[in-house]
Amino acid sequence: MRTITIAEFTVDAFAPYGDLLLTPTTPPRQDRAVTLQNTRPAASANLALIRSEVMDGLMPLRRLERHPHSNQAFLPLSVEAYVVVVAPDRDGRPDEPRIQAFRVPGHAGINYRAGAWHAHMMTLRAPGTFAMLVHEDGSESDCVFAPIEPLIVARPVHA
Fold it and tell me: Which of 15, 45, 58, 73 is most buried as measured by Cβ atoms within 10 A of its Cβ?
């Protein structure tokens, strides 16, 4: 079974998959923090609350998902730190040899671009809650899953 190690998040490494969402640098708010994507007129915005479990209990990973018609944003509400697992696309499937995992601090959100392959949300030490925004119309094309060879995501030795 393949094992990958969690790397520290960098904006450049995550850029092919989406955006980092941080506290605004100028008050009172930051409008249009990311580009919202929705290619289906009948799909409406869904602001959901997601309870995430600790990654150790969710291993091995056996599938990735993507939202081909919408971005998907996650804003941590009660999370110390979390892990995102991403992969580039290769012929409509995750490029498994290029799967990466990143540690994201709990004060930062992320926005996956439409079509970005990713795993479900996972926290590092305790369950957590996220606000999640995606456009959905209730059809199967809201979220597409792809099985992958079982994969273990491991913490770095110093974590």
Answer: 73
